[in-house]
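We modelled each protein-ligand pair independently. The example shown here corresponds to the zinc ion entry; the chain sequence is given first, followed by the ligand as SMILES.
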Amino acid sequence: MKTLTIIVQDNQVYIDGIPRAVDCSKLTFYALQWDAMASAGHIEYAPARCPTCNCINKKPNEPVNDVTPYQAYIAAWATAPNPGEPNNAS
Ligand SMILES: [Zn+2]
């Protein structure tokens, strides 16, 4: 694996750019981007309307230096059904 991307609202996990449907409902951010070669990544948050003044707020990206908390999503990707693609997850 070189890269891992999780798009929470789409319930999609991408490994090396290949998307598969994985339940991401326990995650509270917008996206995770992880570069396994660099052992570095970040979490992205979606913009949200502030209830007080209606301005648009966006939390800054959060650096990630450990992918261990997301191993379950990598495992789920590897076993997710993926019609039309040869089963060569590794
Ligand atoms: Zn505001």
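DSSP finds one helix and eight strands in the chain.
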